[in-house]
Amino acid sequence: MNKVTSPHGLQTAATTVGTTDGYMPGFGNDFETEALPGALPQGMNSPQKVNYGLYGEQLSGTAFTAPSHQNERTWCYRIRPSVKHTHRFTKIDLPYWKSAPHVDPDVTSLGQYRWDPLTHSDTPQTWLTGMRTMTTAGDVNTQVGMASHIYLVTESMKDSYFYSADSEVLVVPQEGRLRFATELGVIDIEPQEIAIIPRGLVYRVEVLEGPARGFVCENYGQKFHLPGRGPIGANCMANPRDFKTPIAAFEDRDAPSTVTIKWAGQFHETKIGHSPLDVVAWHGNYAPCKYDLRTYCPVGAILFDHPDPSIFTVLTADSGVEGTANIDFVLFRDRWMVAEDTFRPPWYHKNVMSELMGNIFGIYDAKPKGFVPGGMSLHNMMLPHGPDKTAFEGASNADLKAEKLANTMSFMFETRFPQHLTAFAANEAPLQDDYIDCWSDIEKKFDGTPGKK
């Protein structure tokens, strides 16, 4: 509801933080939010004494001297400083969560692979115990590369918290709903949404609707950012306003608790006597966010030919080599197909990048059979891939009217590094052994005579 104020007499917005309850709009913005009135210092970062007896603390996501357009940090005003949220560490083992470099000598990563959806077991699984690493790439110790995981979560974390010093985490739900209760606020996500959790941010994961299954890209390198649009201009693809960052939320709760930390590919836990989610107010540009993939505005060919799949990039993370990503997150959603005299599905291809795909729901146009929701495929660097015979024949002989490709949503984690399969992906996950045969019945059409065959 709008309100009338004096003296100007104009109607003003009812809220100062956007139109989505619980969230602030924008990507990479400098936000400010407080859960208690007057908790956020004004005009300075580190007053001698903070209101409510809070402690001021900076969380830096980049080096102090990073260029200003890349510099990311957030000032937190919290009940206890973070030094109270860890104590002595004990090394633990999460055997299914792997980090690069992880090259199993008994696993062949060279090949085209596809998996059916992973199924839930009878054993309750949390965010930590239910993580299953499928591939790793690069090196967590030098902060390059990535890992891809599937999560199978049936149970909320109780008095248990986690953060990764190794990586930024991109979460892509496929079934079920999750809540990420973080130091900087609460994010709820469902299928067709994603969440980005920054490196070093403490959180716990709760199951709102289970069982929950989805995909995770663990980014060891530079942070995700929006790709440059170039001549496309200022609009379409992923628009910054559609990213939502949570408002401040905290809990002042004493209870024996465990904080698990991922550091240099190893897991450690520490015991504390309270919840670490105690940030009452904060301001800055280093924060978690969510994004609704249904707001992604695809662009494409409107006369002929099929553009490169990079046209569907949602987020990218730089590698240090201009134009070559550490990771691209690419979305294939419903869209209109209108190109004339054109083979409309993705064409046959061999690529310097390694492409790992997941199906959120529906049918992917290049693989109408076998690539099912919850499933995953991997086409490693410089390995050929493309449509199967059914897709090729259908698209080659279709009556090319304007057609809406509906009820589909798949994605790709693409990296410049080769992706190595884990033993779990090779031996325990439901690998489709006959996937390579999907191209075996493609016919030779060439007979030396001219004319379209």
Record keyword descriptors for this entry.
seven-stranded antiparallel beta sheet; 2 domains; Jelly Rolls; EC 1.13.11.5; 40% strand; 453 residues; single chain; 27 strands; mainly beta; tyrosine catabolism; metal-binding
What is the CATH topology descriptor of the largest domain?
Jelly Rolls
- The end-to-end span amounts to 64 Å
What is the N-to-C succession of helices and strands?
EEEEEEEEEEEEEEEEEEEEEEEEEHEEH
Q: Class of the largest domain in CATH?
A: Mainly Beta
Tell me, briefly, the overall form.
globular
Number of discrete helical segments: 2
Based on secondary structure, the structural category is mainly beta
Mean pLDDT, all residues: 94
Give the number of DSSP strands.
27
The protein's oligomeric status is single chain
Based on CA atoms alone, the radius of gyration comes out at 24 Å
The CATH architecture term of the largest domain is Sandwich
Low-confidence stretches are none
Report the CATH superfamily of the largest domain.
Answer: Jelly Rolls
Number of domains: 2
EC number: 1.13.11.5
Domain Homogentisate 1,2-dioxygenase N-terminal: 23-293
Keywords: Dioxygenase, Iron, Metal-binding, Oxidoreductase, Phenylalanine catabolism, Tyrosine catabolism
GO cellular component, one term: cytoplasm
In short:
The protein has 453 residues and is mainly beta. It has 2 helices and 27 strands. It starts with a strand and ends in a 25-residue tail after the last helix.
Furnish the topology, listing elements before pairings.
Layout: E1 3-4, E2 11-12, E3 23-25, E4 31-34, E5 55-60, E6 73-78, E7 90-92, E8 112-115, E9 131-139, E10 144-153, E11 160-164, E12 168-182, E13 185-189, E14 193-197, E15 203-219, E16 224-225, E17 243-246, E18 254-263, E19 266-274, E20 279-284, E21 289-292, E22 313-321, E23 324-337, E24 354-362, E25 376-379, H1 389-396, E26 403-415, E27 420-421, H2 423-428
Parallel strand pairs: 11-18
Antiparallel strand pairs: 1-2, 3-17, 4-20, 5-6, 6-20, 7-19, 8-25, 9-10, 9-27, 10-15, 12-13, 12-14, 12-15, 14-21, 16-22, 17-21, 18-19, 22-23, 23-26, 24-25, 24-26
